Structures are given as C-alpha cells and as structure tokens.
From TrEMBL:
It comes from Falsibacillus albus. One of its GO terms (biological process) is lipid metabolic process. Residues 3-238 form the GP-PDE domain. GO terms for molecular function: phosphoric diester hydrolase activity. SUPFAM superfamilies: PLC-like phosphodiesterases. The lineage of its organism: Bacteria, Bacillati, Bacillota, Bacilli, Bacillales. This is Glycerophosphodiester phosphodiesterase. It comes from the Bacteria.
Length: 240
C-alpha cells in the first residue's frame, strides 16, 4: 500500500499554518493530502483555523464563534509567523475547496468541535464539499466522536477518521461503531495499539511527524501515512 504524506495545516513549517500561502505551497509540492481545521464564525461562515481563539495566529483577540466573517477577514494571519507573510488572511473554507478543485489531493478536514460544539457543523461542512464536488476526495476527522457518528449517519459516502491522542482500548470496535476507515493518532499511541491483536491490520495516519530520524525510519519500514509540517522532506524520503 502506498504511504501518503499529508501537509499538516498546509506547509506549516515554512508558511503560516492554515493560510492560503501554506495551502498553495502544499499543492505546489504535490503532496498526497492536506490537513486543515474548520470552525464556524458568528455569522455561520466556515473558516480555517486551528485554535478556537484567534489570538495565537493573528493580530486579533477573541473566539472565532464571537467574530463575524468580516471581522475575521480583516485580521493579519501571517505576520506572527514572518514579516514576509504580513497581510495573509484567515481563509474561508470555500477558498481552500476552490484551490483544490481539479487536483487529486485528498483533503483532511478536522472539524474543531471538541471544545465548542458548533451547531450543524457536520451539515455545513458536507454542503460545502458537495457544492465543490469534493465529497469523495475528503477525509473528515474529529476528536468529537459523537459528531463523527452523526456525520456517518447523515453522509455515509464520506470517509471518516477517528482522532485520538491516546491509544484506543479496542481500535477495531471503535472504528466500526463510528463507521471510520482510519485512525489519526501520535506515534506512541500507534505503537501501543499495534501491540494488541485488535490494533493490527488497520489504517493509521500519524501526527505530527517532523523528526528526520522518525521520518527516516518510516521511509524504511512502517506502513502508515504521516502528517508533517515539512512535507517536502517527507516526500523526498518516500519517493526516493
């Protein structure tokens, strides 16, 4: 099975995370997949940002849920990373979908609804994907497993993945109960699950792998996909 490289929040090691600059860099790098985080603004617009608050990655303050799209769109989402990215905007989800139209890149949409349970997020994400014809080119993931179950019941044709920071007690059972096709987890959790019979033979994607040593070991033997902030480095290893 082909080992796949997912650009974590775009090329976030060299560009401001979850911005169009990071997304376009990942597309140009010819990655297998791109991972982004999706949340909901006060007016219902789907926006791409990891944190629930804008403070860390913009020049603004406050929670995304309390800000309108116009307010979010006025923020600088690049200057915190480097002066050369000053003026980079917070992307709307639709902007990312537009950029991926006509490519074969898989989009991993992490629904950021584990701390804030945005109403109808599942429906809104699906409708956007459907509008751009990308519902078969996506993997939906979340730490909110109830949300994944809802998504699975409403839109069974869309691929899902369980996000888990720690090892799942019974990985196969957890996947079956949600209708998930993969598990997204850290390397240590993966290794622990692999020690059990219930953890063998499953599809894993490991986050976030940036260490040259770990990437080198992965290139030689392991059969999981990776999320990395430096996809060009990972691609060199896997495509050599």
């Amino acid at each position: 099975m082909k080992k796949m490289v997912f650009a974590h929040r775009g090329c976030s090691g060299t560009h401001p995370e979850n911005t169009m600059a990071a997304i376009h860099a990942a597309i140009e790098a010819d990655v297998d997949g791109i991972e982004i985080d999706v949340q909901k603004a006060k007016d219902g617009t789907l926006v791409v940002m990891h944190d629930e608050a804008v403070d860390r990655t913009t020049n603004g303050k406050g929670l995304i849920k309390d800000l309108t799209w116009d307010e979010l769109n006025s923020l600088d989402a690049g200057g915190w990373f480097s002066p050369k990215f000053k003026g980079e905007k917070v992307p709307a989800f639709d902007e990312v979908l537009e950029a991926l139209k006509g490519t074969s890149i898989i989009l991993n949409v992490e629904m950021k609804n584990d701390l804030i349970d945005y109403p109808d997020l599942e429906q809104d994400v699906y409708e956007s994907l459907k509008r751009f014809g990308l519902e078969k080119q996506v993997v939906i993931s979340s730490f909110n497993h109830r949300s994944l179950s809802r998504f699975s019941k409403m839109f069974p044709e869309v691929e899902l993945a369980i996000l888990s920071e720690s090892p799942l007690q019974n990985p196969k059972e957890s996947m079956a109960s949600i209708g998930a096709a993969a598990i997204h987890c850290p390397l240590e959790a993966y290794r622990e699950m692999l020690m059990k019979e219930e953890g063998k033979g499953l599809h894993y994607r490991i986050y976030t792998m940036n260490s040259p040593t770990e990437l080198g070991e992965w290139g030689i033997q392991d059969q999981y996909d990776v999320f990395t902030d430096y996809p060009l480095e990972a691609l060199k290893i896997v495509r050599e």
